Amino acid sequence: MNAVKRKGSRTTVASKPDIRTVAALAKVSIATVSRTINASPAVSEKLAQRVWQAIEQLNYFPNTHARSLVSGRSRILGIIVENITNPFFPELIASFEEIAVAHGYEILVSSTNNDAQLLTNCVRRMLERKVEGVAVLTFGGEEPVLDQLAIHNMPIVLAEFHLDDPSVSTILLDYSAGIHEAVRHLVELGHTRIGFLAGPHVLHSALTRREAFEQTMHEVDLRVHKNWIIECDHTLKGGVTGFEKLMALPSRPTALICSNDMTAIGVLRAAYMANLRVPEDLSVIGLDDIDFAEFTLPPLTTIRLSRHELAKAAFDALRLQAEKSSSAESMIQREFLVSTSLVVRGSTAAPAAEKSASKSKTSLRD
């Protein structure tokens, strides 16, 4: 809608700002405005800032469709995630969008809900919208669509899945470091009976996390009880189900590491309903450090996987591919590492037997 201005008793309609209006206000050429909007490196930072100030002052909205026709680039990046109902993924998408917008890109978001057909449909939408690259952050089950993307020479970034293809980049998640910290933390508290709620075996991330747990347990000379490793969904209900299976065993762990925070929060709920106290009767550790983790009762000790670092790695990988030159193709970084670390809160403590022993020693000293 055109802006309306009133002058005395007369009403005039201000013309809609266009690229010429922006150029006149910024005192630059139309070509400079166009290059600025299309993020051309030929425009100096000082000049670009002047153009963007004029754009903001005039409330001008560049025609993105026209831009893509002229430049041959959509400046849209796709991101496909596993399950939009898991808070980890909206937080990841928000970080990815923030970084992309800051660099002049838009994003197209799709969620697969672990459905192969939905994943195929997601990829079709990406191709129809002429995205410049796709971050497939489903952590498993990507194989059916990789060929579909490869046929179109689409730059891709995958999490924990390596493919020997020059258009594919990989983000490696260092689960081992965070899980090692978690196990060490429990051992230092006095726990020797440690269980693990694993995610679905079809997910690369779930297998990697389980392997990291078992490896760390061997490193600290603790027995891995196979019946204390329970596979469940990465959901609240999955945590409840996993907890119930553990409680049905004749012998149970005093501490539990969960494959993600949603599972761990499900365990907190199930423990409360079973009249078990966390952390007095059972210590619980999650993985992801979603925003909700510090607001549970008790606040959840968890292994932090930074959504910002993951989003930045995904964006950097796609941007390098989208803006590469043929001469520099062999120099493009193909692997990106995202670290993990333990965040200690209120859901872990010494096991009850250890606390009783400590109290007895204190009484004897008194």
Automatic annotation (TrEMBL):
Gene Ontology molecular function terms on file: DNA binding
Protein's name according to its UniProt entry: LacI family DNA-binding transcriptional regulator
PROSITE patterns to which the protein is assigned, alphabetical: HTH_LACI_2
Superkingdom assignment: Bacteria
SUPFAM superfamilies according to UniProt: lambda repressor-like DNA-binding domains, Periplasmic binding protein-like I
Keyword Cytoplasm found: no
SMART domains xref list: HTH_LACI (SM00354)
Keyword presence, Calcium: no
Organism this protein belongs to: Acidicapsa dinghuensis
